[in-house]
Amino acid sequence: MKYENAVYPNREKLMELVNSKDTSPIVMVNLLKFRDIAEYRDGRDEKISGREAYMRYGAKMQPLVESRGGRFLVSAALKEVVIGEVEGLWDVVALMEYPSAAEFVAIASSPEVAEIGVDREAGLAGQLLILSNLR
Description:
Layout: H1 11-18, E1 26-34, H2 50-67, E2 71-77, E3 92-98, H3 101-108, H4 111-123, E4 124-133
Antiparallel strand pairs: 1-3, 1-4, 2-3
């Protein structure tokens, strides 16, 4: 199985979600890999870990998601692979519920998220984001 960590989704995938006729709730499975040291594109010289930078983003993101009908289900550090094999295990798994795929895109592409995304980008080495329907 091939996989590729990324920080941003590709446009085609987002358009599929925007155009989805499915209005049922979804859960996004986030597999997160953090940088050792956060790297801010704006040149700031903060010496914090990628995890710390991402958690700043998460603390601002949670109330934003909840105000639009979503909720955080769980976040946990990953320890080891029990079945299968992967090189470079992700650091955290987080599950977030959204009212629909379209609402996820609306939240993710909002000006509020763009504003707080600087910490997300600085902290993440990459992630996998997997959509799951709740049916």
